[in-house]
Amino acid sequence: METILIDQFLVPESAVREFLEKVHFSANIVKARPGFVEGYVYQRPADDGCVNVITTAVWASESAMEEARKSIAAEFATIGFNPPEIMQRLGVKMQRGTYRRSPY
Fold it and tell me: How many other CB atoms are there within 10 angstroms of residue 40's CB atom?
């Protein structure tokens, strides 16, 4: 059964451009991993001068997602890419959930 990682971000409007650049940079690393099925970025304005951004990453299985997490973390460390630090600097708040997907 597919496993989906869904992240919801609340991004200050002034930081959206840089944040989305970082999202797409990291997505290029993520989607190269075995077991990656598909991913999307969604955005809409929020009421408080922020933008809601949601990212999804669909994995063939939970084990594929777990293996990818390890290798992605190692690659991020090697290249000095630190998402928590970036989000803190930009004032981004995040909520994460892992879901299982099945057809209706």
Answer: 11
